[in-house]
C-alpha cells in the first residue's frame, strides 16, 4: 500500500510539476490532488464494500436483469447452489440479458453473469469462471481495482464531502464507478493466481477442474488466435498451460 501511495503521489507530482508549484511550494490544487491520492490508496475495505454494493444496485438498474422465472436464472441458481457463501464471502447472483460472454464480481460478494456466457459455456465451465471471479475478490484484486477506480473518478469527492465515509452517492458517480470496476484489467500474475484459486475451488466442491482447460480453449477460439482477449491478460495458451500444470 505504501508503494502504491508513493507511486500515485509521484505521478501527480510529475503531472503538476510545471503548473502546480509556486516558488518551490505546492499550490492548493496540487496539495488537494495529493490528499485525494492518499485517500484513494488507503480506502478501507469496509468502505470499498459499501461502495461496491451501491455500484451493483446502479449497475442492475442500467442492465436488463433476467427474472427469477427465466431459464437462465434457474440454471445459474442450480449451478451455484453449493456455494452461496464461499470462503467467508456471502454471494449474490443475477443474470444480465446480454449476449456478451462476460461475468464479474465485486468486493461485497456481488456476482453478475451475462446470458452470453451461459449460452457458450457448459455447467462446469461457468462454475470455473465464477470461481475465477471469486478468486479476484478473495485475493484482494477487486479491492485494488476499487481503489484505482476511486482514485480516478469523481466518487472520491462525494465520499470526501461526507466526512471520508462511503455515503449515498449520485447515480452518475455510481454508474461510472461500476463501469470502471467491470472493465478493470487485471495483471498477468493476478489472472494466474485467480486461475489457481478457481482450480482449488472446483476441487473443493467436487466439480471437474478440467473445465478450466476447455474455458481457455474457447477463449482462444473467440480471440481469433491472438492469444489474449485483453492486452493485460496472459495469453489463453499460457493460462491453459498453467492450469494443466496445476492439474
TrEMBL record:
<feature type="region of interest" description="Disordered">
    <location>
        <begin position="223"/>
        <end position="247"/>
    </location>
</feature>
<feature type="domain" description="Peptidase M48">
    <location>
        <begin position="92"/>
        <end position="243"/>
    </location>
</feature>
<dbReference type="GO" id="GO:0008237">
    <property type="term" value="F:metallopeptidase activity"/>
</dbReference>
<feature type="signal peptide">
    <location>
        <begin position="1"/>
        <end position="19"/>
    </location>
</feature>
<keyword id="KW-0378">Hydrolase</keyword>
<protein>
    <submittedName>
        <fullName>M48 family metalloprotease</fullName>
        <ecNumber>3.4.24.-</ecNumber>
    </submittedName>
</protein>
<keyword id="KW-0479">Metal-binding</keyword>
<dbReference type="InterPro" id="IPR051156">
    <property type="entry name" value="Mito/Outer_Membr_Metalloprot"/>
</dbReference>
<keyword id="KW-0482">Metalloprotease</keyword>
<dbReference type="InterPro" id="IPR001915">
    <property type="entry name" value="Peptidase_M48"/>
</dbReference>
<keyword id="KW-0862">Zinc</keyword>
<comment type="similarity">
    <text>Belongs to the peptidase M48 family.</text>
</comment>
<dbReference type="Pfam" id="PF01435">
    <property type="entry name" value="Peptidase_M48"/>
</dbReference>
<feature type="compositionally biased region" description="Basic and acidic residues">
    <location>
        <begin position="236"/>
        <end position="247"/>
    </location>
</feature>
<keyword id="KW-0645">Protease</keyword>
<keyword id="KW-0732">Signal</keyword>
Amino acid at each position: 500500500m505504501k508503494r502504491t501511495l508513493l507511486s500515485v503521489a509521484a505521478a501527480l507530482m510529475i503531472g503538476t510539476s510545471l503548473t502546480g508549484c509556486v516558488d518551490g511550494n505546492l499550490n492548493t490544487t496540487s496539495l488537494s490532488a495529493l490528499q485525494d491520492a492518499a485517500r484513494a490508496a488507503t480506502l478501507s475495505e469496509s468502505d470499498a464494500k459499501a461502495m461496491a454494493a451501491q455500484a451493483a444496485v446502479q449497475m442492475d438498474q442500467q442492465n436488463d436483469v433476467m427474472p427469477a422465472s427465466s431459464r437462465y436464472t434457474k440454471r445459474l441458481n442450480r449451478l451455484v447452489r453449493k456455494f452461496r457463501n464461499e470462503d467467508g464471502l456471502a454471494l449474490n447472483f443475477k443474470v444480465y440479458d446480454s449476449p456478451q460472454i462476460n461475468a464479474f464480481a465485486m468486493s461485497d460478494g456481488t456476482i453478475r453473469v451475462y446470458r452470453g456466457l451461459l449460452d457458450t459455456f457448459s455447467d462446469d465451465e461457468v462454475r470455473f469462471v465464477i470461481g475465477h471471479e471469486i478468486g479476484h475478490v478473495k485475493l484482494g484484486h477487486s479491492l485494488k481495482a476499487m481503489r484505482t477506480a476511486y482514485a480516478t473518478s469523481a466518487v472520491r469527492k462525494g465520499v470526501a464531502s461526507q466526512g471520508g465515509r462511503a455515503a449515498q452517492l449520485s447515480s452518475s458517480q455510481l454508474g461510472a464507478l461500476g463501469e470502471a470496476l467491470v472493465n478493470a484489467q487485471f495483471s498477468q500474475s493476478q489472472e494466474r493466481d485467480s486461475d489457481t484459486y478457481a482450480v482449488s475451488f472446483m476441487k473443493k466442491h467436487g466439480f471437474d477442474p478440467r473445465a478450466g482447460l476447455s474455458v481457455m480453449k474457447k477463449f482462444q477460439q473467440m480471440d481469433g488466435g491472438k492469444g489474449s482477449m485483453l492486452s493485460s491478460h496472459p495469453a489463453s495458451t499460457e493460462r491453459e498451460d498453467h492450469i494443466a500444470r496445476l492439474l
